[in-house]
Amino acid sequence: MAEEENTPSSTLGMIDKAFDKFSSYLSDRISAFVAFLFLLITIGAFYGYLIVPRFPELSFYLLIAPIALALIAYYNRTFASILFVGLLFFVFFI
Prior knowledge:
Strand content: under 5%
Distance between the termini: 65 Å
Number of strands: 0
Order of helices and strands: HHHH
Radius of gyration: 23 Å
Number of domains: 2
Structural class: mainly alpha
Helix content: over 70%
Protein backbone atom coordinates (compact mmCIF):
# COMPACT_ATOMS: atom_id res chain seq x y z
CA MET A 1 0.00 0.00 0.00
CA ALA A 2 2.85 2.40 0.71
CA GLU A 3 4.06 1.88 -2.87
CA GLU A 4 0.66 2.91 -4.26
CA GLU A 5 0.89 6.34 -2.61
CA ASN A 6 4.05 7.20 -4.57
CA THR A 7 2.80 6.12 -7.98
CA PRO A 8 2.78 8.64 -10.82
CA SER A 9 -1.02 8.75 -10.89
CA SER A 10 -1.22 9.76 -7.21
CA THR A 11 1.44 12.42 -7.79
CA LEU A 12 -0.52 13.76 -10.75
CA GLY A 13 -3.65 13.78 -8.61
CA MET A 14 -1.85 15.91 -6.02
CA ILE A 15 -0.65 18.26 -8.75
CA ASP A 16 -4.18 18.52 -10.14
CA LYS A 17 -5.54 19.35 -6.69
CA ALA A 18 -2.84 21.96 -6.14
CA PHE A 19 -3.49 23.46 -9.58
CA ASP A 20 -7.23 23.57 -8.90
CA LYS A 21 -6.63 25.37 -5.59
CA PHE A 22 -4.26 27.82 -7.26
CA SER A 23 -6.58 28.50 -10.20
CA SER A 24 -9.59 29.10 -7.93
CA TYR A 25 -7.52 31.44 -5.72
CA LEU A 26 -6.23 33.28 -8.77
CA SER A 27 -9.67 33.58 -10.36
CA ASP A 28 -11.05 35.07 -7.13
CA ARG A 29 -8.22 37.59 -7.02
CA ILE A 30 -8.49 38.47 -10.71
CA SER A 31 -12.17 39.27 -10.39
CA ALA A 32 -11.49 41.59 -7.44
CA PHE A 33 -8.61 43.23 -9.31
CA VAL A 34 -10.66 43.81 -12.46
CA ALA A 35 -13.53 45.19 -10.39
CA PHE A 36 -11.07 47.57 -8.71
CA LEU A 37 -9.74 48.68 -12.10
CA PHE A 38 -13.24 49.46 -13.35
CA LEU A 39 -13.92 51.36 -10.15
CA LEU A 40 -10.83 53.45 -10.86
CA ILE A 41 -11.98 54.03 -14.43
CA THR A 42 -15.36 55.20 -13.14
CA ILE A 43 -13.75 57.58 -10.65
CA GLY A 44 -11.56 58.91 -13.46
CA ALA A 45 -14.58 59.45 -15.68
CA PHE A 46 -16.34 61.45 -12.96
CA TYR A 47 -13.11 63.35 -12.39
CA GLY A 48 -12.97 64.27 -16.05
CA TYR A 49 -16.64 65.10 -16.29
CA LEU A 50 -16.94 67.24 -13.15
CA ILE A 51 -13.59 68.82 -12.42
CA VAL A 52 -11.79 69.41 -15.72
CA PRO A 53 -14.57 71.56 -17.33
CA ARG A 54 -14.70 73.80 -14.24
CA PHE A 55 -11.02 74.67 -14.57
CA PRO A 56 -10.27 74.76 -18.33
CA GLU A 57 -7.05 76.73 -17.83
CA LEU A 58 -5.70 73.88 -15.67
CA SER A 59 -7.03 71.05 -17.83
CA PHE A 60 -3.60 69.95 -19.04
CA TYR A 61 -2.23 69.76 -15.49
CA LEU A 62 -5.34 68.01 -14.23
CA LEU A 63 -4.92 65.46 -16.99
CA ILE A 64 -1.23 64.86 -16.30
CA ALA A 65 -1.49 64.76 -12.49
CA PRO A 66 -2.88 61.18 -12.16
CA ILE A 67 -0.20 59.77 -14.46
CA ALA A 68 2.55 61.61 -12.62
CA LEU A 69 1.24 60.38 -9.27
CA ALA A 70 1.01 56.84 -10.64
CA LEU A 71 4.62 56.90 -11.82
CA ILE A 72 5.88 58.26 -8.51
CA ALA A 73 3.80 55.67 -6.61
CA TYR A 74 5.17 52.88 -8.81
CA TYR A 75 8.73 53.67 -7.79
CA ASN A 76 8.14 54.75 -4.17
CA ARG A 77 6.24 52.44 -1.84
CA THR A 78 5.89 55.04 0.93
CA PHE A 79 4.32 57.54 -1.47
CA ALA A 80 2.01 54.78 -2.78
CA SER A 81 0.90 53.96 0.76
CA ILE A 82 0.19 57.62 1.50
CA LEU A 83 -1.83 57.94 -1.71
CA PHE A 84 -3.75 54.78 -0.89
CA VAL A 85 -4.69 56.01 2.57
CA GLY A 86 -5.63 59.37 1.07
CA LEU A 87 -7.87 57.70 -1.51
CA LEU A 88 -9.53 55.62 1.20
CA PHE A 89 -10.12 58.76 3.23
CA PHE A 90 -11.55 60.51 0.17
CA VAL A 91 -13.87 57.62 -0.72
CA PHE A 92 -15.19 56.95 2.77
CA PHE A 93 -15.37 60.40 4.31
CA ILE A 94 -16.15 62.75 1.46
